[in-house]
């Protein structure tokens, strides 16, 4: 009888995990919650579209490259610290007790490298730039332990008759102890080439071509224990179920970014930016190892590698146009700037036929957002230094979420110019927001208060 249970479980195991992964979150996460790069830019909250006078203009606004009169070599490192306080809220028989835990993750990365080449012209400006930059990090950690009667979707079969011992047992309905640990690591990157020209004395335009790459490794350890021995009748004397899951994802795409900067005298600049639609190709490779144990010592474990499925799944995601506006005001040694970035997340679509039925969820579960950035810089010429501060308000694309779910960042930075050619820029980012995580193993989900910290060190050399 138990062998029948195991065999039936293996069948469901293969079917459910071969269809695992793809939902609207997998598409949204590719572009959602981008911070950008560049020590000076991030120190000013990323409100850089109308400033953009270093290599990072290739990301913020390629038209800004036209301001550069010297060759530039650019290098950048980043250090990220991700932390969250986790609430595991469901416990029917314990009076809705909240279980609390915390987790953290740190990582140091090489963040960008770039080269900028002005071309001598009779009048105006012609500048080209090439390079690589990380523009989004997937860093995440979640660790929880609690009591739930939600079981696991993995351990529930449709059409089960719990009164019939010949049926596979339904693991819903009684309290079990559930423990999980999740991590996600990786990034979305750009390999870029851009050029900019002055089309009039006061108007610059630029075009950037971006080849996007990226990867992430999502790992999950899960354990479900019959702590209170509610499951004690043969053949349903379940004791413990454990699972180790790893999902490797690769991303690739191509798009173009068009930007412009209009100079209104010496004090003010306005910018307009447009990013073309693009299609991301995603390839996922998954590995899974599970074990089911019973009170009498009987156990079996099965790995996805034992199944006939290849363990690889491919699909495509279409992203719509994105628009940006920016402005900056220069008052002597004081520089103020702001920008707004618009995206309609309801227009994101799966391009693969087998996933198109999910596309209606983009229109119902997501919304348009406008990301706001504000920043400023004060220069101290006698110290060859600049002090910076900024803020980012990044609304969640999910509908029906309150202000706590929106990402808020505060930034600060410092720049030092040495011998007029060597520059060091430091930036610090502190972010906070609320989010929830759930999947087929934990359908009740966890609630998390997230803190995000990032340090950037940029070194540039102009000659």
Mean pLDDT: 87
Largest sheet: 14 strands, antiparallel, barrel
CATH class: Mainly Beta
Structurally, the number of domains stands at 1
Helix content: under 10%
Q: CATH-wise, what's the superfamily?
A: Outer membrane protein transport protein (OMPP1/FadL/TodX)
Q: Any idea of the CATH topology?
A: Porin
Keywords:
463 residues, mainly beta, Porin, 14-stranded antiparallel barrel, 8% helix, elongated
What does this structure look like?
- It is a single chain.
- The chain is mostly beta strands.
- The protein has one domain: Outer membrane protein transport protein (OMPP1/FadL/TodX) (Porin).
- The chain has helices spanning 2-18, 24-28, 39-43, 57-60, 359-365, and strands at 72-88, 99-119, 126-137, 140-148, 176-200, 203-225, 238-264, 268-275, 278-294, 299-303, 312-319, 322-331, 334-344, 349-350, 368-380, 385-394, 407-418, 422-437, 446-462.
- The model is unreliable at 10-19, 153-162, 165-170 and 304-310 (pLDDT under 50).
Summarize the structure in short.
It is built from five helices and 19 strands. The protein has helices at residues 2-18, 24-28, 39-43, 57-60, 359-365; strands spanning 72-88, 99-119, 126-137, 140-148, 176-200, 203-225, 238-264, 268-275, 278-294, 299-303, 312-319, 322-331, 334-344, 349-350, 368-380, 385-394, 407-418, 422-437, 446-462.
């Amino acid at each position: 009888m138990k062998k029948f249970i195991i065999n039936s479980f293996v069948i469901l195991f293969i079917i459910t995990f071969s269809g695992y992964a793809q939902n609207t979150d997998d598409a949204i996460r590719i572009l959602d919650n981008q911070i950008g790069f560049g020590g000076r830019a991030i120190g000013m909250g990323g409100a850089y579209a109308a400033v953009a006078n270093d290599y990072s203009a290739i990301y913020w606004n390629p038209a800004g490259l036209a301001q550069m009169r010297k060759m530039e070599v650019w290098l950048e490192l980043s250090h990220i610290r991700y932390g969250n306080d986790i609430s595991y809220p469901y416990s029917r028989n314990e009076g809705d007790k909240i279980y609390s835990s915390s987790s953290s993750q740190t990582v140091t990365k090489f963040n960008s490298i770039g080269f900028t080449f002005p071309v001598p012209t009779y009048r105006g400006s012609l500048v080209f730039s090439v390079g690589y930059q990380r523009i989004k990090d997937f860093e995440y950690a979640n660790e929880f332990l609690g009591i739930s009667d939600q079981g696991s979707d993995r351990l529930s079969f449709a059409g089960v008759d719990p009164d019939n011992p010949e049926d596979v047992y339904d693991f819903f309905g009684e309290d079990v102890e559930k423990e999980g640990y999740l991590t996600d690591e990786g990034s979305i990157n750009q390999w870029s080439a851009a050029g900019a020209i002055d089309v009039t004395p006061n108007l610059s335009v630029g075009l950037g071509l971006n080849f996007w790459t990226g990867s992430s490794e999502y790992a999950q350890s899960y354990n479900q224990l019959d702590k209170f021995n509610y499951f004690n009748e043969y053949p349903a004397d379940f004791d413990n179920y454990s699972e180790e899951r790893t999902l490797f994802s690769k991303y690739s795409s191509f798009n173009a970014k068009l930007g412009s900067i209009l100079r209104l005298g010496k004090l003010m600049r306005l910018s307009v930016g447009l990013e073309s639609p693009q299609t991301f190709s995603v390839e996922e490779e998954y590995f899974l190892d599970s074990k089911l144990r019973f009170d009498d010592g009987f156990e079996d474990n099965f790995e996805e590698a034992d199944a006939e499925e290849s363990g690889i799944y491919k699909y495509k995601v279409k992203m719509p146009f994105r628009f940006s506006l920016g402005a900056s005001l220069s008052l002597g040694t004081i520089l103020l700037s702001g920008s707004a970035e618009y995206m309609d997340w309801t227009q994101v679509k799966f391009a693969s036929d087998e996933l198109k039925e999910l596309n209606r969820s983009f229109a119902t579960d997501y919304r348009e957002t406008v990301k706001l950035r504000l920043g400023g810089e004060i220069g101290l010429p006698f110290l060859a230094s600049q002090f910076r501060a900024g803020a980012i308000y990044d609304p969640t694309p999910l509908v029906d979420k309150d202000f706590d779910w929106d990402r808020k960042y505060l930034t600060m930075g410092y720049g030092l110019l040495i011998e007029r050619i060597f520059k060091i820029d430091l930036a610090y980012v502190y972010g906070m927001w609320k989010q929830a995580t759930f999947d087929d193993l934990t359908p009740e989900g966890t609630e998390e208060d997230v803190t995000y910290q990032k340090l950037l060190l940029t070194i540039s050399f102009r000659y």
